[in-house]
Design brief:
The chain is of the alpha/beta class and about 400 residues long. It has 2 domains: about 25-195 and about 385-400, CDP-glycerol glycerophosphotransferase, N-terminal domain (Rossmann fold), CATH 3.40.50.11820; about 205-380, Rossmann fold. The chain has 16 helices and 13 strands. It has helices at about 1-30, 50-65, 75-80, 95-100, 145-150, 150-155, 170-180, 190-195, 240-250, 260-265, 310-315, 330-335, 340-345, 355-365, 370-380, 390-400; strands spanning about 40-45, 70, 90, 105-110, 130, 165, 185, 215-220, 255-260, 280-285, 300-305, 320-325, 350.
Length: about 400
């Protein structure tokens, strides 16, 4: 009870004093700072540099843009990237980082729901161009669609954006309503990760480093994060039988990659594996092993998930998906989905191990089943099915900076 009380006091203190104070401070700093419109500053708060920010940042470097820089909140990550991106990487708790931020009108982010995540900096969508790349097409409610963030109190903590990128007209209206953005300020450019999803299959298979079985079928099991409910349950079947499942995997030469959500792993102190047993046929594929999931998706035969937006990442490959919606009713109460589950999520829905094994068998023997329906959904969520999204985003940023 005491912890709950102090948590509430901390949040009230943050909303009433900290955010207004840092906003006022940075407004004053920027008022007396000359802005360099050519700078594109990537502000990254994560412990790993990956996803849309990394892909766009590296695209700009390859393109020869000398005004793209990276501002990092994690010191360990900052130190590790200095050699890879010389003269491009800055630390938030440094004079150089401070000076770069105060004169940068264009701030690019992929993560950051709460404004306090950028403390002691303040990203002001009215004074700067805050460009939100996101981290995939949302399946779950986001921003003000979530009851918690729509409340008058928590709404003050929600980070605002000036522009956002998306993949389709449908996603445009989702983002606009979720973050109070003008529809025209949500760019249907595609996202950097979609460039990778629609590119040709890489020659080097990164899974070879963790899978010892040649020619095995690869199943990626990647559930979403349950931020308010019970923690994620892998293989949450009433008839779960480890020996029976492993026997099936061995008989069919299948490997299951378990990928826990990064937030769930972080909350477990990095010890979360999600596995009820350890076996060579069930391999950990968390973010510490494969930082960016788009690097391994081309080599995955079947995706297993529940409500993860990774489903949309997998659609361009037009391969089978199995869903395990074991707590859908509970999940809808505190989070909820943006789209009708059975209409948009194309694939087998299973709640028991026997049905799960049957779905795996069907996915292996009949991968073309539901292929037309998967393609229909893919076209609905991807207006641009090419590898030019980074270029389109770059052109948009140049236009708002001119």
């Amino acid at each position: 009870m005491g912890w709950t009380f102090f948590s509430k006091v901390k949040k009230i203190f943050t909303v009433a004093l900290i955010i207004p104070a840092i906003r006022l401070f940075w407004n004053g700093v920027r008022f007396f700072s000359k802005q360099n419109k050519q700078i594109i500053l990537f502000f990254h708060t994560e412990k790993v540099f990956y996803d849309n920010s990394k892909l766009l940042f590296e695209f700009l470097i390859a393109k020869g843009d000398n005004n793209s820089f990276l501002l990092l909140k994690n010191r360990k990550l900052y130190l590790s990237l200095q050699e890879k991106y010389p003269n491009r990487v800055f630390y938030t708790k440094s004079i150089q980082g401070f000076n770069l931020f105060r004169k940068s009108p264009n701030i690019v982010i992929s993560y950051g729901t709460s404004a306090i995540e950028f403390f002691p900096y303040y990203l002001n969508a009215k004074k700067q161009n805050i460009i939100y790349l996101g981290h995939g097409i949302p399946m779950k409610k986001i921003g003000r669609q979530v009851a918690r963030w729509s409340s008058p109190f928590f709404e003050k903590l929600l980070q605002s954006y000036t522009y956002a990128t998306c993949n389709s007209l449908l996603e445009r209206f989702v983002l606009a309503s979720s973050f109070k953005l003008l529809v025209d300020n949500v760019w249907i450019t595609g996202t950097p990760r979609s460039d990778k999803l629609f590119s040709s299959r890489p020659k080097v298979n990164p899974l070879e480093s963790v899978i010892p079985f040649p020619d095995s079928k690869v199943v990626l099991y990647a559930p979403t994060w349950r931020e308010l409910g019970n923690s994620t349950g892998f293989f949450p079947f009433p008839d779960f039988d480890a020996n029976k499942l492993l026997h099936y995997l061995e008989s069919k030469n299948i490997v299951i990659l378990l990928r826990g959500h990064k937030e769930e792993i972080k909350n477990a102190g990095g010890r979360f594996s999600g596995s009820k047993f350890q076996h060579k046929r069930i391999v950990a594929a968390n973010q510490d092993v494969f930082p960016d999931v788009v690097d391994i998706l081309p080599f995955v035969d079947i995706l297993v998930t529940d409500y993860s937006g990774m489903y949309f990442d997998f659609l361009p490959f037009n391969r089978p998906v199995i869903f395990i919606p074991y707590d859908l009713n509970e999940y809808n109460k505190y989070k909820g989905l943006l789209f009708p589950y059975n209409e948009y999520m194309i694939g087998e829905k299973v709640l028991t191990q026997s049905d799960f094994i049957a779905a795996l068998e069907k996915g292996i023997l009949e991968p073309e089943k539901d292929a037309e329906r998967r393609m229909e959904i893919m076209k609905l969520f991807y207006n641009h099915r090419d590898t030019n999204s980074c270029e389109r985003i770059y052109e948009k940023i140049k236009n708002i900076s001119s």
